[in-house]
Amino acid sequence: VQLQASGGGLVQAGGSLRLSCVASGSIYSIGSKAWYRQPPGGQREFVAVALRNGATTYADSVKGRFTISRDNAKSWSLQMNSLKPEDTAVYYCVGDSRYWGQGTQVTVSS
Predict the structure, then answer these.
(1) How far is the C-alpha of 8 from the C-alpha of 108, rounded, in Å?
(2) Is 14 left (phi over 0), alpha (psi -120 to 50) or beta?
(3) Taking the alpha carbons of 23, 31, 59, 39 in that order, is the dihedral positive or negative?
């Protein structure tokens, strides 16, 4: 199974970006769909997850600003609004807690 993340880029503080993740390979669907991020010089951290039953959970730092969506059986997205410089990181999509995408860079300038 391969995950392809896209949608990163450079944006000014207060702006928005939408990240997308698509799974391919020998899998019918992804149950748990998540996003993690790793800031420069920092450790990977949880951002958001959407479960098959529709439940979603967010890190406190992104609540009210980010929205995770289950787009279809093998894709999901992360709408990021009101971006802050501290959101700068490489963002990874993670499927079923074991499949990791290659990461997409998000840079928020002040």
Answers:
(1) 10
(2) left
(3) negative
DSSP for the chain? -EEEEE--EEEETT--EEEEEEEESS-S--SSEEEEEE-TTS--EEEEEE-TTS-EEE-TTTTTTEEEEEEETTEEEEEE-S--GGG-EEEEEEETTTEE---EEEEEE-
Instruction: Give the tens place of pLDDT for each residue, 24-58.
Output: 998 888 899 999 999 999 999 999 999 999 999 99
What percent of the chain has a predicted confidence (pLDDT) above 90?
92
Q: What is the phi-psi region of residue 31: left when phi exceeds 0, alpha when psi lies from -120 to 50, beta otherwise?
A: alpha
Rounded-to-integer distance, Cα 48 and Cα 34, Å: 6
By C-alpha distance, which of 63, 38, 60, 34 is closest to 49? 34
